[in-house]
Write a structure and sequence with these properties.
It is a single chain. The chain has eight helices and seven strands; from the N terminus they run ααααβαββαββααββ. The chain has about 325 residues and is of the alpha+beta class. Helix 6 runs antiparallel to helix 8.
């Protein structure tokens, strides 16, 4: 049975995605050493020995077959050794890359742990006073005539406290570990359920949404979290485009995975920003917290997939704009 996404408007209208904490996707076990390249080297070395013998015969030099065999075997041994060295070099490079990725994941986990400790302290020390300040300002706001300086000041206090509380909430959500519910879900239905909310977000800019369906492949994951992932990326694109701009949600199959492309015709992402795009707290927005894309990447990874920026994949001329690709494995 396919579970259709159950979306709550109050949750999806939040500017930040709800994150999940999950263990890193286990890496594939290392493959046994391959000797194919070594045997290629041996064959090439043996051929080089025979080629030298033919050259000597062509110039009129009489060479003993024993000597020819000795040189051919020697060259074959050299080729085999060189092939083994090349294979060992490739394995060392792969091990170094895996070690670097492990260090990166460990550093990321340490950062999340620090964020969690910070968030707990912030929640305890800041949220309660914020509640008192907001309640007091709201009471003053009700008693003040509209249009007066005191009314505007009280309204400003309420708005700023709400903004600060949203930042604290986003910080707590990002640091809180949540396990996704694994169940079949249709990504096509999920995108269709998110479309009305995306169109509503585009209405102030008179933006256009182009949604392309797929083949209905089922995934195994949390429908609510996946819906928040899709909506968050679409909302990010809606904020990036100008008046009358366009965004596109497109599904496609690639091998044993399903890809969701979220494209727009906005200004795009500069190369210097692309390198840090998925880092926590990195943002180019004046009011952003820098947790949206970082959280989206965590949701994708927790489902065994990945989120990446596709350079030159925007909807504008010559690929201008941004294109984010969510790659998720199909249900087994």
């Amino acid at each position: 049975m396919i579970v259709r996404p159950r979306l709550a408007y109050s949750r999806l209208r939040a500017l930040q995605l709800e994150p999940i904490g999950a263990d890193p996707v286990p890496s594939a076990s290392p493959s046994p050493p391959s000797t194919r390249r070594a045997w290629y080297g041996a064959v090439l070395g043996f051929g080089a020995g025979l080629f030298d013998f033919l050259l000597l015969r062509l110039v009129g030099v009489d060479v003993s077959p024993v000597v020819v065999g000795f040189f051919a075997v020697t060259f074959a041994g050299f080729g085999y050794a060189i092939g083994l060295l090349l294979d060992a070099r490739d394995r060392l490079r792969a091990s170094a890359a895996a070690l670097e990725d492990s260090h990166r994941r460990a550093a990321h986990s340490e950062k999340l742990a620090a964020i969690g400790r910070l968030a707990a302290g912030v929640a305890h020390e800041v949220r309660n006073p914020l509640g008192v300040i907001r309640s007091s300002a709201a009471l003053v706001l009700e008693d003040m005539p509209e249009g007066t300086d005191n009314h505007r000041a009280a309204r400003f206090i309420v708005e700023e406290v709400d903004r600060l509380n949203a930042v604290v909430t986003a910080l707590l959500d990002y640091a809180r570990p949540l396990a996704p519910r694994r169940q079949p879900v249709e990504l096509v239905d999920l995108v269709a359920a998110v479309e009305p909310l995306v169109r509503d977000a585009l209405r102030p800019k008179r933006g256009r949404l182009a949604a392309a369906g797929g083949d209905g492949s089922a995934l195994r994951g949390d429908p609510d979290l996946l819906a928040q992932l899709v909506y968050g990326l679409a909302l990010n694109a809606a904020e990036a485009i100008g008046d009358g701009g366009c965004i596109e949600l497109r599904l496609r199959r690639r091998g044993d995975a399903v890809e969701l492309l979220v494209r727009d015709d906005g200004p795009g992402v500069t190369p210097e920003h692309a390198a840090r795009l998925f880092e926590p707290f990195f943002t180019t927005k004046r009011t952003g917290t820098g947790l949206g894309l970082a959280t989206a990447a965590r949701i994708a990874e927790a489902h065994g997939g990945a989120l990446e920026l596709v350079p030159g994949g925007g909807l504008g001329p010559d690929g201008r704009g941004a294109c984010f690709c969510v790659r998720l494995p199909e249900a087994a």
